[in-house]
Design a protein that fits this description.
The complex is a heterodimer. Chain A is an alpha+beta fold. Chain A has 7 helices and 13 strands. In chain A, strands 3-4-5-6-7-11-12-13 form an 8-stranded antiparallel barrel. Chain A has a two-stranded antiparallel ribbon with strand order 1-2. In chain A, a hairpin with a 6-residue loop joins strand 6 and strand 7. In chain A, helix 5 packs antiparallel against helix 7. Chain B is mostly helical. Chain B has 9 helices and no strands. In chain B, helix 7 crosses helix 9. The longest helix of chain B has 27 residues. The radius of gyration of chain B is 19 Å and the shape is globular. Classes of the chains: A alpha+beta, B mainly alpha. At the A-B interface, helix 1 and helix 2 of A face helix 2, helix 3, helix 5, helix 6 and helix 7 of B.
């Protein structure tokens, strides 16, 4: 190396003091925490972004459906008002005005044959059931039109019909000898055309039969009684996100309670008890084990496997909004804050003596070596700043609610992110 | 100082041990990274990237060489990775030679390390990388070629151009300083 290069090399190899050691260490710590949680910064960010987008989409859809529902209510209200107005107009029409519209004086029909009533005209019947024209509970004094007004035309034509029918009855049967009495009638009159013509002439001048209308009584929709309190149970299955090789899925059960201060809004509280298994061939990241991990039990020993189980309790407070849709299944969205208590059980660290393997040839002849086990049981710890948001579908019965949902839980200190699915049953009171 | 217990603690993912190791080798790492980058902030990012690799891949350190050498290699590789996008940038126009290629070495002896770094900062990234790797870190041209993805001949020519640039800049600064 020439002098030029040597001088540069010597100068540049001199170690110099640089500032901001603490600041840079803090930045590195965050990355190491993320790595310890089994999540790379990029994957966690993209995963959280997808969930945020999904939550925003769900909120937007809920807002649109709520707005649409509001418009439908307004429309219903307008139609109801219109209907009430029409009913009021119908009921304001008097019976006299209706009767005066007919050309012939009407005959009030009475359900008792031969019975008189107060109306003018003659009573009569043409063989029609009086019950068809009688209104329930109404009499002639009610402010309604008469049950049925038979114009005089019908009365007169009915006599003609009866006369024709009697002529038909008097007709001799085919093959029988005609009598003097009937022959005259039969030869003079073809009864069927006469009957039809009579009826047609009668109907042509009949006023339109008016169907009596009653003032419509609006049937109010049935409103379910608002029950503000709910208590229930749920079963949960959770999946680490992204999935961690050393960690199993976790399962558990829980209790929940809810109170509705406003319609469709619920304040929720829940307590869940869950557990999961840990199995690894390497030392565990801090996310899975926060205690002291034992050193090698000997100079030739290597870590072989770690087995353990951890129990976890989650206590959550949140807010849920049920989208006001009149469907069998109603969607809901919720956000909650959780306090997580992690309680590792017994963890077993197995070390294998690599050098003194116990193969078929005995010690020092290869094969798996003897194992030594170290058992640890760290203290429980609390993990705070965990937020969860999710959606669910609920099916409402008069006293019960069945729900299915999924939440995404994100930890502020990147302890873990997970998707939790649950199925719940709540009692309403 | 025996750092074996600290390294063992790092293998067990103990944060305290990682912090100790970081503080011990921070200035050493920054010294190396600063040679390859033009700014201190970039060097800090390179150092953090390198230590992240150290702590996450500590199980690959077999202990057959001093930890310092293993760390040095990681920092150099990380610096090259950071510079990789700019290594292929076209070099600026050749500086006009102010004087003969030979430069009075007395000028260099008077320079501080910071001034030499400022000289290096004026080199194009590709020239600076080759100069550091060959002159300071003692890589061969074949190793440099593999590391940078270039031909060994390119490495040699880049080194020659880097020396020429440095001498020219030094001569310009010396002449300028002599002016009244």
């Amino acid at each position: 190396m020439n002098d030029f290069d040597k001088y540069f090399a010597d100068k540049l190899n001199e170690e110099t003091r640089f500032p901001r050691v603490g600041k840079n260490w803090n930045a590195l710590t965050g990355r190491l925490d993320a790595y310890a949680a089994g999540v790379s910064t990029g994957a966690a960010a993209s995963s959280a972004l997808l969930w945020k987008l999904a939550a925003c989409g769900l909120l937007a859809l809920s807002g649109y459906l709520a707005w649409d529902n509001h418009n439908i209510r307004l429309e219903n209200q307008e139609l109801q008002e219109k209907l009430e107005l029409e009913v009021a107009m119908d009921t304001s029409l008097s019976p006299e005005a209706t009767v005066a519209s007919t050309e012939q004086p009407a005959t009030t029909f009475s359900d008792a044959p031969g019975a008189d009533d107060n109306t003018s005209g003659q009573t009569g019947h043409v063989g029609l059931s009086p019950a068809l024209w009688r209104q329930n509970g109404r009499t002639a004094s009610d402010q309604v039109r008469p049950a049925f007004a038979i114009p005089e035309q019908i009365k007169s034509s009915s006599d003609t019909v009866l006369a024709v029918v009697s002529d038909i009855d008097a007709m001799p049967m085919p093959g029988s000898a005609p009598t003097d009495t009937t022959q005259h009638h039969f030869s003079a009159v073809n009864p069927l055309p006469v009957l039809l013509n009579t009826l047609m002439a009668t109907t042509d001048t009949l006023p339109l039969a008016t169907i009596p209308t009653a003032a419509t009584t609006l049937i109010q929709p049935h409103h379910e009684q608002l029950r503000r309190f709910r208590v229930g149970v749920q079963v949960i299955a959770g999946f680490e996100q992204p999935p961690a090789v050393a960690l199993s899925d976790y399962h558990g059960v829980g209790l929940n309670a809810a109170y509705s201060p406003l319609k469709n809004f619920w304040l929720t509280a829940s307590a869940d008890w869950m557990s999961y298994q840990v199995q690894s061939k390497a030392y565990l990241p801090r996310r899975f084990y926060h205690g002291e991990q034992p050193k090698k039990t000997g100079p030739d020993h290597e870590l072989w496997q770690i087995d353990g189980q951890t129990k976890q309790q989650q206590y959550s407070l949140g807010l849920r909004y049920v989208v006001p849709l009149r469907f069998a299944l109603r969607p809901a969205v919720r956000i909650a804050h959780s306090w997580v208590r992690e309680n590792p059980g017994i963890f077993s660290f197995a070390f294998e003596d690599k050098l003194h393997g116990g193969g078929p040839g005995g010690p020092n002849h290869g094969g798996p070596g003897p194992k030594e086990y170290v058992v640890e049981m760290p203290e429980p710890i609390w993990k705070t700043n965990n937020w969860r948001m999710g959606a669910s579908l609920e099916y409402n019965l008069p006293r019960w609610t069945i729900s299915l949902g999924a939440d995404y839980i994100s930890s502020g200190k990147v302890y873990f992110n997970a998707v939790q699915t649950y199925a719940g049953l709540q009692y309403k009171f | 100082m025996d750092i074996e217990p600290i390294i063992e603690g790092c293998r067990q993912q103990k944060r305290a041990s990682q912090h100790q190791l970081y503080v011990l080798f921070y200035h050493y790492a920054m010294t190396i990274a600063r040679r390859y980058t033009a700014q201190v902030e970039t060097a800090e990012e390179v150092v953090n990237d390198a230590f992240f690799k150290v702590f996450t891949k500590i199980h690959l350190y077999a202990g057959d060489q001093p930890f310092r050498f293993w760390l040095r290699r990681i920092i150099i590789n990380t610096s090259i990775d950071r510079l990789r996008s700019s290594l292929n940038a076209p070099a600026p126009d050749e500086l006009q030679p102010w004087h003969d290629a030979e430069t009075d070495t007395g000028i260099i002896e008077d320079l501080t390390r910071e001034q030499i770094l400022q000289l290096l900062d004026q080199l194009p990234p590709a020239y600076r990388a080759v100069f550091n790797l060959y002159v300071v870190d003692q890589y061969t041209h074949d190793e440099i070629a593999v590391l940078l993805g270039i031909q060994p001949g390119t490495s040699k020519s880049n080194l020659a151009r880097a020396r020429q640039h440095l001498k020219t800049i030094l001569a310009q600064d010396f002449e300028f300083s002599k002016q009244p």
